[in-house]
Amino acid sequence: MEQFNINTICGKVRVYKKGIGEKKLLLLHGAGCDSAMLTWRETMERLFYDDYTVYAPDLPGYGASENPENIAGTEFYQKYALALCELCNAFDLQDFTLAGLSMGAAIAVRFALDEPEWVKRLILIDPWGVTRKMSFHRFTYHYLKNEKHMRVWYARIAKCRFLAKWMIGYSLIGDKAKITPELIDEVWEACKRQDAYKSIHDYQISSITKKECVPNYDNDWARLPMPVIFIQGENDPLVSAEDVRRAANAVKDGKYYELKGCKHWSVREQPEEFIRILEENQG
């Protein structure tokens, strides 16, 4: 697998590239302690590389990419979309399938709205951007606003492998058999990264106001001209399947797939299903 460092407005970004195929695929990971390889490694290993050329960046602030300064705020998603545009220019990447998980899905939608002629197909997995309000919204807003809460939580995980295991089972992976020692160690090590809490805090405070979640793409779904495939974990505790189905129905050319038993990290839990859906919708 090739690795590249690309300069963007959000700092230097690490990009992983694999394959020589004509089908171009760009994969965006989620927030938390995530990274390109943490979410997408198993998918990338299973793809047919005579058919696909796959790009997976560590988004700014994650993995081996630099931490951007002052990215939190109302322009959070726009800045990430601009950085993504710079990556596409660096690789002369056009007419490609864009897939994103959670936060990465919200970034993918922003990019597709800004550059619709570049995106052939959009795949949104357990996506942020469909939720109007959180449960106990006002309390959640005030809790997430305090950076100390996230800093203390990540410090506790860094000291306790059991907490990393608990977090994976509680919200990310439904099938306990897939919560392997190797996966636990990989997540645990990612949470130990210096200032790992900062990226998730930037994401959280940029994604919720006192009254609503942001972005909310309810008024934008019909503007997407490309096919949009929604993939949702049946038991995702972070994003409501009902909200995702509502978004899929609002898209001109939308499809909805629900992965049985999966939680929020459905693409890591069932990478073979993601590939099956990808192949089914190549059309």
Sequence of strands across the biggest β-sheet:
1-2-4-3-5-6-7-8
* Beta-strand content estimate: 15-25%
Number of helices: 11
Major β-sheet profile = 8 strands, mixed
Radius of gyration: 17 Å
Structure classification: alpha/beta
Low-confidence spans: none
**Assembly form of the protein:** single chain
Order of SSEs: EEEHEHEHEHHHHHEHEHH
Terminus-to-terminus distance: 27 Å
Number of strands: 8
Helix content: 40-55%
What is the 3D shape?
globular
Nearest-integer average pLDDT: 93
Brief write-up:
By secondary structure, the protein is of the alpha/beta class.
List keywords for this structure.
283 residues; alpha/beta; 42% helix; 19% strand
Structure description:
The structure is a single chain. With 283 residues, the chain is an alpha/beta fold. Helix content is 42%, strand content 19%. It is built from eleven helices and eight strands. The two termini are 27 Å apart.
Describe the SSE topology.
Elements: E1 2-8, E2 11-19, E3 23-28, H1 36-46, E4 52-57, H2 76-90, E5 96-101, H3 103-114, E6 119-125, H4 137-145, H5 147-159, H6 161-172, H7 181-192, H8 196-205, E7 228-233, H9 241-250, E8 254-259, H10 266-269, H11 271-280
Parallel strand pairs: 3-4, 3-5, 5-6, 6-7, 7-8
Antiparallel strand pairs: 1-2, 2-4
